[in-house]
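Chains adopt folds. We examine one example:
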Amino acid sequence: MASQNASLALLLALALLVQAAFGNIECENLEKESCAYAVSSAGKRCVLDKHVRRSGAEKYACTTSDIDADKLKNWIESDECIEACGLDRSELGISSDSLLEAQFAKQLCSNRCYSNCPNIVDLYFNLAAGEGVYLPKFCKARGANARREMAEIKSSGYAAPVAESPIDNISASFYGSPALAPTY
């Protein structure tokens, strides 16, 4: 537990140093390799878009989405979190579709991701809520009866209240087991 807290503290300190080095982040100024899962200095999520020219050549551009990040600004997601959460920096746009993939759900709900990557958890918390799914319950359902429990979650139509997000409420009792809320 102590080593996990020390690792988390080191990871967050490193992330803050990296953020300070970048100054104000504008999505349109980010390279393809750092765009996905970044948050601008205005608190808007950055998304990678692909444009196909008439010649057939593909060009990638980082753009600012209309999606706000809860209480996060000036953030380029770490490689550690991208790996821990099973994400890909070359992913285009923002979608909740990946929540339906068992391998992705397993990585997102793992303690390594869920407890240490607040930006990603916040994003998927809000995406899941938009689909009528409460992310902590979604993560809890990943056990032996995951398919049946997921069907119940999806059919219940239960969505988290908008004011409650992993960023706002970080007590372990709010999230329960198996994944704890991220801490800062």
